Amino acid sequence: MYSIADKKYVNKGLLVDKTELIDIDGFFMASQNKVFQIQGSNIRKIRVVNKNLANPLVTKKVLGRYKQLVGLIMELLVEDDDSGETCREALNQIEKFRMELKNKYRDYLSQVEMEKILKHLALLEKESKQKLFEIEHQYQMYQNDNRRSR
Question: Domain span at residue 93?
């Protein structure tokens, strides 16, 4: 299903108006160049309504974003930051991605894929919290040593 924003087609009743498509539940598919050529018209958005057709598209998109997130988190955890700001940023990114998974993609991903991703996110979150705890503990020890020396 697609719609063309050209008013000449909509006024003739040949195509569905975009306002009628807003209520349809589906997954928006995008291409690399963001424009589809269908019957000589430029189509910017295609909504996939069938969940079986949307599953491979969503899986590919989620796994791509997941790989980017894991790379970012590993980079943030490897950085040597004494303030713990990188760990907090990693935790924020994990939580943001988890909420996006549950809200946007839950209907389109299989239960096995969802559990696998969420388990790995939980491990990354645990590692981030542990590193943040260690940084805060070192800071507290430093503060205690400075108080004693006075």
Answer: 51-149
